[in-house]
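Sample A.
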Amino acid sequence: MFELTRVLLGYPDEAFPVLWDAFWELDENDDVEYGVRKALAHLVRPLCDAAVDVFEEGDPKRTFRMLDELMLVPFHPNTSVFREKVHFLPDRMHPSLKALAESEDEVIRLRALDVCRMYSVP
């Protein structure tokens, strides 16, 4: 699966929807799922856009899983697969994370605060 996900990254526009669907369909402890998660971590901008959509949907289970994903498989801080410099989460995510950091759901609030600290969200 690792080799397959690396090949998919050569076609990021086509790969993202496939990897994104697989992320939600696979069990969190599945070995294949780990390869999918690692590949998604290289697709920073589309993953952030999709994460914002998840946060806006308001499903607590999916929101927590997405926040957890941002903690477990951090974006590659130096360069992406495509040698693009990646230092922080794209600004589009900041308002969503700040809103989640003020959530009434304590579990989501604490995890959002962790993500904000990890990525230095202002």
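Sample B.
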Amino acid sequence: MVIKSTELDLNFIEEICNLGSKTVRSCFQCGTCTGTCPSGRLTSLRSRTIIRKAILGMKNEVLTSPAIWECMI
């Protein structure tokens, strides 16, 4: 996948943090979220991938992913 800088929303991570998820900015891709996600076992949701894309500013990729809307929590 090629990531074009013109498609990135560098304020997206700030929007997420302002909504209450302050710790997402400190993610270092350990994989704990994916391994412990109850939805991950039953859906195509991969929390780690979604978090990384959010940090990179890939807002459209995150919000249009069908998997993110399959969350069971």
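B remarks: The radius of gyration is 12 Å. The chain has four helices and no strands.
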